[in-house]
């Protein structure tokens, strides 16, 4: 495992919500970070079929373009009744014809697909959010960290916090959706704490243990 020995990194993302969450997580460690969007890097084609492959594609692209270590995230909602969909194509379900993304539309697609399966009870709507972080260096070295959180899909959407599919995902053991939680509640983790709630915070905790601690 390679330790991260610089406080300057690139957040390899063009997704404003994802950039905000990663910056919230790395902020307490004193990182100076710029996003791929801010640096006007082109978005690489995500041709992988796994979260790990797509995270690696994005991190390596930003690392090589910037000459700095880059941290990417590839994440998605995996729904059991839909055979794992939308999964690695989570963002694609939100794509509109003009190339913009509409997650309200995507959540409706999910609900329609579940209804067609007859999945109306919570026990038939089990799902998990998956996040894979990739830390890549300009020389091509990569480290991967995977986090998951179990829960189920609810309808109608609840809450206007977070982003993406957060309003329809209720994590196991909670009465609220990610869309109803503050950033602190959703992540459930900060330096020194032993717990982590969100998939991204769980992946980040492994990243901290692996690459930041001596």
From TrEMBL:
One of its GO terms (cellular component) is cytosol. GO terms for molecular function: dITP diphosphatase activity; ITP diphosphatase activity; metal ion binding; nucleotide binding; ribonucleoside triphosphate phosphatase activity; XTP diphosphatase activity. The keyword Transmembrane does not apply. InterPro entries: dITP/XTP_pyrophosphatase, ITPase-like_fam, RdgB/HAM1. Binds 1 Mg(2+) ion per subunit. Its EC number is 3.6.1.66. Mg(2+) binds at residues 45, 74. Pyrophosphatase that catalyzes the hydrolysis of nucleoside triphosphates to their monophosphate derivatives, with a high preference for the non-canonical purine nucleotides XTP (xanthosine triphosphate), dITP (deoxyinosine triphosphate) and ITP. Seems to function as a house-cleaning enzyme that removes non-canonical purine nucleotides from the nucleotide pool, thus preventing their incorporation into DNA/RNA and avoiding chromosomal lesions. Homodimer. This is dITP/XTP pyrophosphatase. It comes from Shinella zoogloeoides (Crabtreella saccharophila).
């Amino acid at each position: 495992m390679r330790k991260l020995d610089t406080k300057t990194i690139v957040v390899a993302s063009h997704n404003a919500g994802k950039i905000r969450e990663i910056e919230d997580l790395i902020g307490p460690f004193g990182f100076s970070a710029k996003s791929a969007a801010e640096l006007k890097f082109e978005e690489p084609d995500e041709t992988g079929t796994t979260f790990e492959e797509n995270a690696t594609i994005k991190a390596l692209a930003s690392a090589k373009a910037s000459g700095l270590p880059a941290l990417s995230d590839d994440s998605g909602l995996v729904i059991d009744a839909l055979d794992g969909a939308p999964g690695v194509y989570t963002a694609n379900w939100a794509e509109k014809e003009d190339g913009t993304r509409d997650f309200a539309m995507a959540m409706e697609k999910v609900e329609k697909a579940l209804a067609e399966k007859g999945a109306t009870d919570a026990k038939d709507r089990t799902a998990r959010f998956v996040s894979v972080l990739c830390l890549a260096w300009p020389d091509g070295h990569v480290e991967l960290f995977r986090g998951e959180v179990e829960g189920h899909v609810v309808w109608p959407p609840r809450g206007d916090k977070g982003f993406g599919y957060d309003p329809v995902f209720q994590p196991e053991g909670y009465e609220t959706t990610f869309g109803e939680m503050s950033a602190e509640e959703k992540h459930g983790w900060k330096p020194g704490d032993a717990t982590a709630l969100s998939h991204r915070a769980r992946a980040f905790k492994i990243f901290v243990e692996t690459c930041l601690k001596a």
